[in-house]
């Protein structure tokens, strides 16, 4: 795997790519990962990883090769270019180590330059290449206003087109993202939808009487509205502040923002300038707290700016569904987020940026004028049926085994039989 973001980062593609790598390793495959020193979502290399150009970590049958890169806590076009350039340059030795004798390379975007270099190295070394598109780049950066220079836009589009051409197969998260990629890919048939997954045993509803989020953070009688995860431009944190402002005189309502990211400092400055004592902030919590937070909050906000339509599928939405959250999704009509909520038959969709509509839904939940438990049960069941990790990643493992059996190569017959047995056990479960 070649990915700029990986475990132990807690948000975004880091989590889902790490889960996929861990799944394959636990099924008996040797997995190697070329990645960065952890830096996301704070946009700073974590203190325990500073001062080294390279680092190697072993986790069972997984080996992680990390490399230094330059990163700024105030992301801009220039700093992002420097970040991706240094990351790709210093990662080259690790990419070679990762790709040597590999059967397949999963190369993850949105770090477009890093992904392009990884694909090129895999091509040179004769390794089958699967490009995993978590955000459609450069479309996402352009539409969110993070990339405006016409020369850089043209170069980025050309880089993306080359990356799509070099990939033997392209995986992406939803139908809208597939359509976007198809506009720049001559071989549309190699694009497959492989969604992010959830572990339904780990992500579950936790009753109030055993819920650590309610015990540790929410005073008795308080109605808790939660926004958690990455605090970036895509997440439209302004809607949280505007909704809180509308409810500032309601003493029993409190907004909880738990996370980190490039927009955190700006968000906190705006909160303080508005004098919103009903908005409290906490840093990212341990993974074990996630199901407690998402099921323990009375309302969970999933918000996106209006420009986000078919360039990304928010993994936090699927996670919230698995936990049986009461979801209010503020997103554009026709977006992947809206489609998922509609298909689930649970949760409520309001227009992107519409804080008035969001407050109306919050008040309906407070007044118990809607079937909240029904909404929670339906999204939980939807996530379990549609995004089960064993079903989706087990299918990918079966494909790896089948392709290796057809092509021959590094798998021994005994290895293949062990993998087949484990896959069959997973299917039966």
Description:
The protein has 429 residues and is α/β, with parallel strands linked by helices. The protein folds into two domains: 13-194, 3-Layer(aba) Sandwich (Rossmann fold); 208-386, Rossmann fold. 45% of the residues lie in helices and 17% in strands. It has 16 helices and 13 strands. The protein has helices spanning 13-26, 77-99, 112-124, 139-143, 150-166, 175-182, 212-217, 238-246, 264-274, 290-296, 315-322, 336-344, 355-366, 372-386, 389-407, 413-428; strands at residues 31-36, 54-59, 62-67, 104-109, 128-133, 169-172, 191-193, 223-230, 253-260, 279-282, 299-303, 327-331, 348-351. It starts with 12 loop residues before the first helix and ends with a helix.
Question: What is the secondary structure topology, with strand pairs?
Answer:
Elements: H1 13-26, E1 31-36, E2 54-59, E3 62-67, H2 77-99, E4 104-109, H3 112-124, E5 128-133, H4 139-143, H5 150-166, E6 169-172, H6 175-182, E7 191-193, H7 212-217, E8 223-230, H8 238-246, E9 253-260, H9 264-274, E10 279-282, H10 290-296, E11 299-303, H11 315-322, E12 327-331, H12 336-344, E13 348-351, H13 355-366, H14 372-386, H15 389-407, H16 413-428
Parallel strand pairs: 1-3, 4-5, 5-6, 6-7, 8-9, 8-11, 9-10, 11-12, 12-13
Antiparallel strand pairs: 2-3
